[in-house]
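Researcher: Re-running this chain for the archive, since the previous output was lost when a drive failed. Same request as before.
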Amino acid sequence: QVQLVESGGGLVQAGGSLRLSCAANGRTFSSVAMAWFRQGPGQVRECVAAISRFDISTYYSDSVKGRFTISRDNAKSTVHLQMNSLKPEDTAVYYCAADTARTIVVPTSESEYDYWGQGTQVTVSS
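Model: Regenerated structure tokens:
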């Protein structure tokens, strides 16, 4: 069982930055793949950033490459998403997800993730 709690969402102006955090329980945090998904109004839930177990590889969607950075703090069992140069189209509910499968390939599909946080709202004003 993995419990995830997101924080850090809010309202920010275009061009600004936000840092999302996702705290996870358990003693095997480094062995769990983690990801951030988002779902905007009228859109499907899509993966924007992911990090494999043991931090072997990372993934970023084309829409956020160069602007978002995913990182992991094993000591605090926390994954972060640093979001810079935010655009109005980044407005969405952002969800933290965990995949406990034993693979070094970074998962990017919603169906691959076993546990989900409740989501945190990010709103970017123009």
